[in-house]
Amino acid sequence: MFSDCIIMAGGSGTRLWPASNSDTPKQFLPMRGAAAKKNDSAGKRTFFNAALDRALAVTEQTGRVIIIAGRSHTASIVNACAEYTKADLDRIVLIPEPCARNTAPAIACAVSYIDWMGGDERNILVLTSDHIITPLEAFQVDAASALAFAQADKLAIFGVKPRGPETGFGYIETDALISSIPEKPEVYNVRAFREKPDLEKAKAFIKAGNFFWNSGMFAFSSKFILREFDRNASEVIAPFGRLRAPDERSFKVERGLRIMRDWYCLDEAYREARAISFDYAIAEKCSQTVMISAGFNWTDVGSWDEYALLGENAGGKKNRGAGARGPAEIFQIGASNCYVDSDMSVALIDVEDLIVAVRSGKNGRAGAVLVARRGETQKVREIVEQIKAAGRTDLL
Known about the structure:
Radius of gyration: 21 Å
CATH architecture of the largest domain: Alpha-Beta Complex
Strand order of the largest sheet: 6-9-7-8-12
């Protein structure tokens, strides 16, 4: 079991716009399909809840789960944590980021907190909060392998065997197989990290056979990673070295969840730390990196097409007239193979192969509607860029 776990729960969330936005990014949307618990009939459990379940399952009872998220996400996290027991909540702390600075400063902040509070060397697992990972038992097996390498002063990362030439993911190029034990995941040395490729390069990666999707999850020991930060990204870790040990006055409690409210010099540390991803700052430069080949199922849910499919599979219908999700009614005449996610009623007439997402603005945000043909929802990213160019960031 890991000493501590870090959950990265920040991000603005645009690929599932307009349901996902800067206040409620993808990790706080309801789960769909087999990944959602059977007793979640109201659809309240989120991607973040599933990540928190994983963290609690692989962390020692005396260990901590540190959540790093934007200050605007505090309410969503408090609501998501309300279902957990007092024993679980006693292990969890939320550190709201004063500003978004990418994943390297977020991890540096959390590791600095662990270092202040931990005493002895700690073994740490870093999790994403917006992916579907099943089953939990398979993830626990892989996490145990990652822990063994973290204890041996390695940076362990989780790679996913590609299901096709995907252009939306980063890739891990592996080298020699260093561990192959029955009932345990294969482990490889890492040769290089590759950026999101174009289609032809992605096809070449698949043909080569030694490339894996980068899941964005890591394991390491506290002393090892602090040395790596000092060696490779001092401009990220140095500002956090000026933080003082937090005391009880540094925290507040909301519905049982401990929240950092006043950590001396935290705002200054975030302003000064270089904004860079953990991959760029550390993983790509580290010479002691191994990759755990994931035995669990991993889905990024990076488009409305994927999210709709999860909901439809949950209902047992792949080609219904029109499927609805969210607190809304749907009315339709002659509609086929359409999916609606809306917080207000929608009517469809003689249309097919559409995905419709509606947010009315009832929560105080600007309302927005997305209408897209199935198979084309990756272009939502281009729409978001148009919205930014038009100066309408209130829609995001």
